[in-house]
Write a structure and sequence with these properties.
Layout lengths: L1 H12 L5 E3 L4 H13 L3 E4 L15 E3 L4 H14 L4 E6 L3 H16 L3 E7 L8 H9 L4 E4 L3 H13 L6 E3 L7 H6 L1 H4 L3 E4 L9 H14 L7 H19 L4 H10 L4 E3 L2 E3 L13 E5 L5 E3 L2
Parallel strand pairs: 1-2, 2-3, 4-5, 4-6, 6-7, 7-8
Antiparallel strand pairs: 8-11, 9-10, 11-12
Length: 298
Amino acid sequence: DPRQASLAAQRLSTQDIVAVIGTYGSSISEATQNIYDESAIIQIANGSTAIRLTEKGLEYFFRTCPRDDEQGKVAAQTIEKLGFKNVAILHDNTSYAKGLAEEADGILKEKGVEVVFFDALTPGERDFNAILIKMKAANPDVVFFTGYYPEAGLLLRQKKEMGWDVPFIGGDATNHPDLVKIAGKGSAAGFYFVSAPLPKDLDTEEAKSFVAAFQNKYGTPPNSIYAVLAGDGYRVAAKAIAVTKSTDTDKLADYLHTKLKDFPGLTGQISFDEKGDRVGEVYRVYKVDDQGQFILQP
């Protein structure tokens, strides 16, 4: 809830805090950015991918996750690679989902792929039959849904119940094991999504050690990448403090912007550009198999 996030940021800004790790949602981060910036507190988001978050010139904002333009590019490449020619794009009007939808729409049209449907659903609703019927009438080869996993799970279940076997592709907010619980294995099978790699597919020694420590502490491994990306945020903040021997946030921000290069992060090498964006490609493509497992695609 952006309002709760704003209140939390205001509370934190009155304390002796150097850096804040988070958050997961773009609209949540957006509600906190200016508060942290005005208080000169480093903010390192772990799952906020909306492009505009780093287009504001905020000196203290960073993110270990990639941006929606990279995600849109990988989604468009996947749609093209799979041979789909007519695409329906569905979002939920949140900062993240609408931004990703608009990014993919532009890239697909440049590639000569026809976008036959572009609209939004209302998150939190339970019955999506009306919008599914509307989409079906547009006769797409594939649906790219840019919203979150609860709605994605219901869409997959309800389109199967209505006998529509069009393939669905999701963005990284559909990367959650509860997607399969909501949709059911039969309905989720064949669903593609674009995401940073899952913890089980991270091959660095740092990541393997982190996942083992996480499992030892909590009894299960991290079930999505966002805990790992938050871990990366903590590690780069700690590195900046150790190297600069300072908790002056101007010095820390300068170090992260200009001097941290190819840091061995849990999710791969980390560097930041002048905007605070992570440099380099991170996204991968996954497909849900008939057992509900998320399988990394070659």
